[in-house]
Amino acid sequence: MNQTLYKKVIDQIYRRYPEFTGARPKVRLQKSTASQNGGNGIYLFTFQKNVPIDDNKILPRWMRVMVNQQGKILKVSTSR
Predict the structure, then answer these.
(1) Spatial distance between the Cα atoms of 6 and 65, rounded to a whole number of angstroms
(2) SS3 of 14-76
(3) CA 68, 74, 80: angle at the middle one, nearest 5?
(4) pLDDT for 54-77, tens place per residue?
(5) Ranges in the chain, pLDDT < 70
(6) What is the pTM of this model?
(7) From CA 49, how far away is CA 63, in angstroms rounded?
């Protein structure tokens, strides 16, 4: 994935989910989809952020974002 599409995806996530602003994702190519689509696979962005809650406790939050080769977000799932 090129840098322009990477930045586009991250900006979209930061706008939709402001609590993840500043979290840098781990990005990997889903191998099973790449082999089925002739090398044009789906990228998986994994975000992790610790969100403060009451009584000085921290809640770890996770988000998985599936993105196609053109930078279109296909699916988003988050932890509670």
Answers:
(1) 12
(2) HHHCHHHCCCCCEEEECHHHHHHCCCCCCEEEEEEEEEEEHHHEEEEEEEEEEECCCCCEEEE
(3) 130
(4) 888 998 999 999 999 889 999 999
(5) 32-39
(6) 0.81
(7) 9
The rounded distance, in Å, linking the Cα atoms of 66 and 44 is 5
Helix, coil or strand: residue 77 = strand
- The residue extents of the domains of the chain are 3-78
Rounded distance between C-alpha atoms, residue 67 and residue 33, angstroms: 12
Give pLDDT, residue 9.
94
Question: What is the gyration radius of the CA atoms in the chain, in angstroms?
Answer: 14
